Amino acid sequence: MMERMPGVRKNGYRKQVKEIYQFISDHLYFNRPDIEVKGERYNSSILFSLITALNKGKELIIGEPGLGKTTSVEFVCSLIYQFPLGVIWASEVSGHPEQTEEKIIGRPDLGKLNQGEEDVVWTNFTQIPVKIVDEINRLPETKQSMILDGVDRGNWEYLNEMIINDEYCLFATANYQDGGTNTIIAPLVDRFDAMVESRHPGPNLSFLIGKGKRKDHLLRHLKFEKDIHRILKSKTAYEKKMPRVEEVCNAFGEYVYEVLGVKPLQKHDRDQIRAEMETLDLDQDASAFARMLLAEFSFCERYGQKRVVENCEEGCHYTGYFCREIKNCASNRLPTSMKQYAQGLAWLLEDPEIDIEHMKSVIPYTLAHRVQWKDEILSQRERSKRDDPLPIFLAKEAVRVVSQRFREQSEHLKDALAVGSRIYQGESMEPLEGDHPLYAEIKKDVDGRPS
Amino acid sequence: MNLPSPRSPFTGSSRSRRMNPSSTDRKRVGLQRAALTTKNPFEEFKTFAFQKDDIPLDRIVRSTEEVMDHIRRGYEKLLEEEAKELVWMVQYNTIIKAYEVAEKYVKQIDYTAEDIEDFCFALENTQKIPYFIPGPAGVYISALSNYAKEDEIDLKLSELKTEINLVGFRLPKGKRLVIEGDTGDFTGIGMEGGELLVEGNAKNWTGAGMRSGRVSVKKNIGLHTGEWMMGGEIHVGGRVRGLGNIVEGKVFEKDKLVYPGKARYPNVYY
Predict the structure, then answer these.
(1) What 3-state class would DSSP assign to B29?
(2) Closest residue of B to A410, CA-based?
(3) What is the DSSP letter of B249?
(4) Contacts of residue A425 in chain B, CB cutoff 8 Å?
């Protein structure tokens, strides 16, 4: 596979990450591969968790209780960030109705408060880069908003103090709707870059899991756990704590390498990987395809854009497109997530650019949780034969249909975008016409360009 | 290097302006300013080699249009030379002269039977052809048919409001011209061995002066049928309104030979 990408420097990080994937897949989280990209088969849950952890993403993992939603993420984070499992467990936020800001973010330092000083004791959750919220939809909707800012920007505020996470990733697990769950509020859902399902592995693997011993002990180390906990609890400034935590993490990483033969990533490695991912850009097909999809999920000829409060009119010319089937408008976070995960995948597959295959593979998972389908579409399709939960199934279908449309008119579409670029550069040309919302959007951009 | 004094709301406070910025700060400011520049949302396609789509259908449409332009120009030339007086008198000499002009242009054009049909349709349905005069149009269509590459030509004229005269003029041996719809006067005159099938009605002087070949009219035919015809056959599925002075040849009405025959006299109405 390394030979596939002659233009990219081979620095061993990909191999290291693939070994981590393989180790988790072979020893820690047994499941079937459920996604194929360029001939390589992966388990979407591990793959997306790896990319999330590597590329500072935010991922929502759904699934039935007991199917390894939290466990898979803990293993991935332990190996990518070199944290012993005990530290990760101690920093997890559990979603339950009685959860408070003090347990999630931080609390006043009571000792200092008695002396008339105001200081904040930050929780492990806010301090370490690995953030896991277990059963996020058991948090009442009002309390979900507490973690909005932190989730979005890595800023955590309590009293008048703030810490900013330079490096962080967030994983939240959610059960399907039942009596004890709430819905995740729309602005919070949109902040998740991707949604995957931790699936049942099938009876045979499930039996194997039940027959074997728990694997937690493999990634535990009591001494390092205590050391890290002590540093996190200390009163030193956050910026000074983290390098010390990193030192212990490095020691744990060496221990893991020695004992398990798999080498976790150090901070320097992660930074280097991110820098490499950052250099990967979309090729023209991937870009045009993404624009085409975004146009269908945001366009409304009659009202200027999709709005959740407005309904489609009968007899609209664009009836055959997805704008007709959805209620809400795609947010600006969607293209960011699409690119972020496609970058991660392209990097892992050693490709020199993000191409349409990477986009097609990641888009369903970045789109599924963000789309609000119309009720009639849901009732029509919920009984369709499928292998995915309904939101992911519908998103995959949408990507398939848009990619079919793209195949039919990619050249003309790219011509239209090229003409748009020329007009933007000052050439006197007419925007190209075509029967897709994107042509209308290009025309709008061209008409509204700065003079 | 001094930073220009900040004017936009995106620059720092007055206090920070007084401070001496480090080179890292300058670099950061430079990057931030670069990020503020107006972006071409189609930047990635700046290098895309824009080409006008060249899908097969476009090529076909383009070449068809080019051919139609040639055909149209030929017709216009014919009109310019032959119908300057706007009233086109049907005299045999006029027809021959017009045909010679038409022949000259038609020989230079590479066209197909479909192009002839398109031209017929364009005669009435586009603004590009200024005058639709049934006589010259018929001569021109006849020339196009006679010089077409195909041996069989099918022209759909049923949607035209005006019947075209002189269709099938000098249709040579080996050609088969099928007309869907009605034709005007002088259909199939001077035929030279071809086969003309009119799937509707034909008006007067059909088959006049024809030398050989066969004219079939599915419905009715007008007066002076076969005037001065020298050979060949005219078959009429409906009624023959009147026969002309026929020199030689045969006329059939509903498979029944009506010329030569006892009861037939020139232009007898029956």
Answers:
(1) helix
(2) B53
(3) -
(4) 40, 46
- Kindly determine whether residue B44 and residue A425, on different chains, have CB atoms separated by under 8 Å: no
pLDDT tens for each residue of A192-215:
999 999 999 999 999 888 888 788
Give the pLDDT confidence of A328-351 residue by residue, as tens digits.
Answer: 999 999 999 999 999 999 999 999
Residue B142 · residue B169 · CB < 8 Å:
yes
- Inside any domain, residue B201: yes
ipTM higher than threshold 0.85: no
**Count of domains observed in chain B:** 1
In a domain, residue B209? The reply is yes
Q: State pLDDT tens for residues B79-119.
A: 877 655 544 556 667 788 888 888 888 888 888 888 888 88
The bridge status of strand B192-198 relative to strand A155-158 is unpaired
Q: B50 and chain A: CB distance < 8 Å anywhere?
A: yes
Residue B22 covered by a domain? no
Q: For residue B130, give its domain range.
A: 56-259
Question: Under an 8 A CB cutoff, do B50 and A419 touch?
Answer: yes
A411–B contact, CB cutoff 8 A? yes
Residue B112 covered by a domain: yes
Top pLDDT among A141 and A122 is at A122
**Residue A90's CB: how many other CB atoms inside 10 A?**
17
Cis-peptide, bond into residue B260, ω within 30° of zero: yes
Interatomic CA distance for residues B202 and A147, integer angstroms: 88
Q: What integer pLDDT is reported at residue B62 of this predicted model?
A: 61
Architecture of domain A2-274: 3-Layer(aba) Sandwich (3.40)
> Are B40 and A424 in contact (CB < 8 Å)?
yes
| Domain parsing of chain A, residue ranges | 2-274, 284-447
